[in-house]
Task: inverse folding
């Protein structure tokens, strides 16, 4: 993906492109957008928008609830009086007064966050800056909505014809479906009109031809294309030599069909695959064999990336699911790239044989753990990671194995996210282990997320007031 500056004007870099970039790169931090009259913030955690704030008066929770018809003017005024007197949050006051139920408040805060984000898409003259690192950890209610859906809903509010024409490619541009499964299978709730437009896109028609052949007016047709193009479902066809439809191995019906599966069965499938990622060769991962051709590989790749798309975590309560799905999705993409290239080099069998040959001999979980400890002592951190991964795969309920895996991953460049995931699993298995909580705090410190680090250190000290790691961690942050 093309690099995007983290500080620029919205006129130069559109908000949709910026948010896609931050999401794909799994950034954690604060996106600050300023105008002459207000400032608004979107807080992102691993690329997902989790909260938003605004200095614009009409974006306050009380005003939002009035506009949504959840409270009346009298109730609003009463809550403001108490807010000024007590300093409590307005939402909490409204619940205490009996004007809102906790469920209404939950809905109201999410509604407020979404509306703040949607309003940003209407801005044409503003500056943005993305500040990577710590985000507030004191918000109990956080947004759980895919970036694709946020951009989709925000873009739909734009009704400026000139702006749409300026941001879209020229009308002589040929559009096609994206070939990138991370974009193609993202969680976006398309309307019947959107789906109908997608059905006439075949990789040969220009924007003008698509609008002319549409069943609706030119503006509505262009707006639908603009929305689909902004979320990345459509892209420009740049090479004349490209096939009319790059996605011919996957039908439109398959792309748009929701994936339905029993949640328990799905979670078990995800866990089984995730725990065995390091011991599965590319053919096994893509459910293929040495006789598979490129078309077979492509079909399997799109089927599996659709099934294990990271956006599927939004419907689950498991906080670790996104990390697991992301690891699986990346492994599938890597396997597809390896096998596709091997077909071109006529070297299929050597890869399969190499993968099988390179697999470690079958050892018990304890033996793999001991291998990992020895490798770690010799500063062979990659070898330690491999051994500890095998140990956790063989004994996934052993928190000690996950803790050691996490420690080893902190020694590998760009592996802090994986280290966090491993220690979170250790914490889940042993929630009363103060050392695991302290280690989680240390990882958050390394990631620059100080508020979350302090929270873990304090939890560790509640369980073990003498925990040295937790005490040193707090001193380091406050010092």
Result:
């Amino acid at each position: 993906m093309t690099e995007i500056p983290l500080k620029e004007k919205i006129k130069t870099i559109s908000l949709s492109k910026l948010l896609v970039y931050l999401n794909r790169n799994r950034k954690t931090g604060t996106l600050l957008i300023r105008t002459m009259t207000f400032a608004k913030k979107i807080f992102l955690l691993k690329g997902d928008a989790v909260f938003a704030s605004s200095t614009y008066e009409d974006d306050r929770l009380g005003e939002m609830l009035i506009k949504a018809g959840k409270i009346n003017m009298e109730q609003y005024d009463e809550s403001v009086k108490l807010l000024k007197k007590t300093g409590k949050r307005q939402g909490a006051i409204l619940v205490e007064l009996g004007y809102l139920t906790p469920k209404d408040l939950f809905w109201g805060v999410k509604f407020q966050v979404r509306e703040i984000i949607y309003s940003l898409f209407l801005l044409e003259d503003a500056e943005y800056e993305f500040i990577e690192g710590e985000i507030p950890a004191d918000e109990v209610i956080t947004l759980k909505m895919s970036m694709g859906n946020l951009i989709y809903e925000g873009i739909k509010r734009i009704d400026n014809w000139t702006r749409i024409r300026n941001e879209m490619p020229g009308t002589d541009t040929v559009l096609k479906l994206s070939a990138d499964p991370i974009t193609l299978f993202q969680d976006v709730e398309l309307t019947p009109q959107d789906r109908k437009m997608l059905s006439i896109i075949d990789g040969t028609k220009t924007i003008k031809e698509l609008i002319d052949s549409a069943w609706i007016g030119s503006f509505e047709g262009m707006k639908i294309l603009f929305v689909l193009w902004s979320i990345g479902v459509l892209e420009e066809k740049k090479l004349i030599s490209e096939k009319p439809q790059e996605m011919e191995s996957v039908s439109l019906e398959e792309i748009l069909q929701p994936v339905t599966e029993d949640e328990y069965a799905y979670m078990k499938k995800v866990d089984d695959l995730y725990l065995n990622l390091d011991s599965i060769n590319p053919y096994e991962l893509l459910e293929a064999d040495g006789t598979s051709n490129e078309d077979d590989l492509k079909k399997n790749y799109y089927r599996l990336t659709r099934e294990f798309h990271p956006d599927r975590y939004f419907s689950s309560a498991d906080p670790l699911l996104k990390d697991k799905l992301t690891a699986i999705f990346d492994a599938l993409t890597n396997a597809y790239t390896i096998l596709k290239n091997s077909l071109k080099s006529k070297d299929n069998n050597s890869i399969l044989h190499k993968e099988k040959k390179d697999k470690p001999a079958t050892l018990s979980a304890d033996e793999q753990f001991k291998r990992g400890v020895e490798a770690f002592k010799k500063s062979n951190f990659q070898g330690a990671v491999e051994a500890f991964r095998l140990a956790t795969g063989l004994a996934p309920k052993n928190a000690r194995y996950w803790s050691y895996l996490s420690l080893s991953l902190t020694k590998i460049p760009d592996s802090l996210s994986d280290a966090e995931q491993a220690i979170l699993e250790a914490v889940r298995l042993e929630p009363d282990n103060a050392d695991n909580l302290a280690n989680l705090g240390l990882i958050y410190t390394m990631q620059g997320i100080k508020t979350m680090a302090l929270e873990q250190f304090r939890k560790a000290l509640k369980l073990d007031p003498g925990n040295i790691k937790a005490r040193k961690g707090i001193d380091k942050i406050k010092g």
User: Anything to note?
Assistant: Confidence is low (pLDDT under 50) at residues 348-361. The domain at 263-358 is CATH 1.10.287.110 (Helix Hairpins). The beta strands are 7-9, 29-34, 39-45, 48-54, 127-132, 175-177, 234-236. Residues 64 and 112 are 6 Å apart (CA to CA).
